[in-house]
Amino acid sequence: MDQEFSLTSELRDMRLVIATSGYVNNVGGGAISTEFGRHFDTGVREVVINLAQSKVVNSIGMSFLLEILEKLHEAGGKLIFTNLDPAVEKMLTIMGIFNLAGKAATVDEALKSF
Amino acid sequence: MAGAVTLKIELPKIPDIELVALEGLDRLAKHLEIPPEKVGEAKILIAEAIINGFEHGGNDNDRVDVEFTIDPKELVIFVRDYGKGFEPSDIENPDIAKKPGGRNKRGWGLKLMESMSDDFRIESGPAGTKITIKKLLS
User: Fold this and answer.
1) What's the rounded Cα separation, in Å, for the pair B95 and A101?
2) In angstroms, rounded to a whole number, what is the distance separating the alpha carbons of residues A103 and A81?
3) Region B51-78 average pLDDT
4) Which positions ≥6 away from B101 have C-beta within 8 Å?
5) 3-state secondary structure of A74
6) Helix (H) or strand (E) holding B73
7) Which residues contact B135 (CB under 8 A, 6 or more apart)?
8) CA dist., res. B41 & res. B60, Å (int)
9) d(CA B36, CA B137)
10) Chain A closest CA to B60's CA: distance in Å?
C-alpha cells in the first residue's frame, strides 16, 4: 500500500486543477494549501481538487482544505472536488464541506460546471 | 471463508504510523475475502482514532495500543492511549459554519468517529483514553 503523498497541478484557462496521490494528512494538506496559495496570489479563483488517487485522508489534512475554502469564499471563488472515493465523500459530507464546495464525478465535469 | 481474526499493535509516536494499522487491516480483509470498498470507511475510523490517541496522549506518552478484530460481518476497533484523559462532553461539536474565519479548523475526529461508525464508545480518565468502535461490513 503506497500512501506516499504527491500532487500534480495544471492551469486550464485560469482554473487550477490539483490531482493528489496518497495519504492526505497534515503534510499532504499543507502541500495542497501551498500549491493553491501560489496560484491564488496570481488571481486564480476557480479550483478543482481531484482525489482519485487518495483513498485515505484524515481530518487534519482536510482542515487545510477549509483554509482554501475560506480564501476562495472571501474572494468570490469556488472549489470543486472530483473522483471521490465513497468513504472520503462520506467524510467530507459529515464535515459539511459540500455546503461550501462542489463535487463532480470527473475533472472535465467540474470544469464545465464553473 | 476464514473466521474472525485479531491484530494487536503497539504503535510508537512517529509520523504517519497509523498507516501501519491500515496496512494490517488491508491484509486481514484480503485474508477474509472482504472487498476493499467495504473497509474504506473503517480505514478513516482507524486513522482518526489513532491520531486522536496521540493528540490526547500528550508529549510524555509516546505510544498508542491498537487492536482490531474483523470477521466478514463486522470490524471492532479498540484504541488506547496513556495520556491524562479528557472529558468528551467538553469537546465542542464542530460546525463548519463556524470554521471559516475561525482560527481553529481542526477538532473533527470525535464527530467523524461517532458519525461513521455503527457503535462508538469512549472511556477517558487520568490513566488514559479507550475508544471502541464497531463498523458493520455486510
Assistant:
1) 15
2) 5
3) 90
4) A70
5) helix
6) none
7) B41, B42, B45, B74, B75, B76, B77, B116, B117, B118
8) 31
9) 11
10) 22
Longest dimension (CA), chain B: 52
Q: How far apart are CA B53 and CA B128, in angstroms?
A: 9
As a whole number of angstroms, the distance between CA A26 and CA A63 comes to 8
User: What is the interface pTM, i.e. ipTM, of the complex?
Assistant: 0.90
Average pLDDT of span B105-118: 91
CB contact under 8 Å between A95 and B96, yes or no, is: yes
Q: Which of B47, B53, B46 is nearest to B69 (CA)?
A: B46
Residue of B nearest to A97 (CA): B96
* Closest residue to A63, CB basis, from B37, B101, B105: B105
Cell of B36: 476493499
